[in-house]
Amino acid sequence: MEKPESLEEFYQYKLNWLPDNLQQDIGHFNVFSMGDNYVANPVQARYSRRDFYKIALIRGKNVYHYADKSLELDGTSLMFFNPLVPYTWEAACDTITGYFCIFKEGFFSEKLRGNVADLPMFAIGGKPSYILNDSQDVHVSQIFEKMLEEIDSDYPFKYDLLRNYVTELVHYALKMQPSEALYQHPNANSRITAVFTELLERQFPIESPSQRFGLRSANDFAEQLSVHVNHLNRAIRETTGKTTTMHIAERMASEARALLRHTNWNISEISYCLGFEEPSHFNNFFKRQTNQTPSAYRIV
């Protein structure tokens, strides 16, 4: 898989210029209007991870490819992208308008309580897209307009104010549809399931052929969580209706689809990354999960 797109590559590819202080500004932040100073590149952006966060309000008909899923959106959408999840988007109409801001984790690291990656819209497996009606479009657009005004100001504390505007976008989205990640777990089974899910997701995405998926069985996770495997299996089944093994297999299959579709690694390399000792074992696993062989899925 290609290395993540850097801020330098973003500026050169999309805007053909580099800010003077880009190398010094670890917590870099910038904001753009798609209607004024941003021209969408006619060539579809490559499917890749970035090394920065992005929040975008986009109007029009678009198709987003996010992780192993594709989302077709028509209207106004508020999108949140994090550096761990590969994505790209393609316009399905002639006119695209809106706004977006980009920032590095350092922009929040000293000011925000907790980690920005833990926010529900940036969390692995979280909900990245929020559909806006007309009044919500107006409200969010006003926040972006304030950002555009402030970024060009001489106010010495403007980045504190910009940070507040980004936080306002985050909370506006959370209030539209609260994420399950904010749900207070009512019992021990829910807590165990939540921690299991986090451990599972931490192993992804797989970014190089040398990286290997380590926790592959219910016993592996039970050891990490210091619980008996029967207790783990019972907690997850009662909470989700699925077995531990089913969750692991579904997540492995999801990553396998992404690697087959978006890398040029051979089947043996992908098999190794996902913890299979023999490519034939991977072939059998993938066929059970998708009713297709890896080779057949790749050429579709």
Spatial shape: globular
Average pLDDT score: 81
- Proportion in β-strands: 15-25%
| Number of separate strands | 6
Summed up, the helix count is 11
Distance between the termini: 19 Å
Which class do the helix and strand fractions yield? alpha+beta
Q: Any low-confidence stretches, pLDDT <50, length ≥5?
A: 37-44, 178-184
Would you list the SSEs in sequence order as H and E? HEEEEEHEHHHHHHHHH
Instruction: Work out the radius of gyration.
Output: 21 Å
Helical coverage, percent range = 40-55%
The major beta sheet can be summarized as: 6 strands, antiparallel
Protein architecture, described:
With 300 residues, the chain is α+β, with helices and mostly antiparallel strands. 43% of the residues lie in helices and 16% in strands. The protein is built from eleven helices and six strands. It has helices at residues 7-15, 106-109, 134-151, 158-176, 188-202, 218-225, 229-240, 244-262, 267-273, 279-290, 294-299, and strands at 29-33, 53-66, 69-81, 87-91, 97-103, 129-132. Strands 1, 2, 3, 4, 5 and 6 form a six-stranded antiparallel β-sheet that branches. Helix 8 crosses helix 10 (279-290). The protein is globular, with a radius of gyration of 21 Å. The model is unreliable at 37-44 and 178-184 (pLDDT under 50).
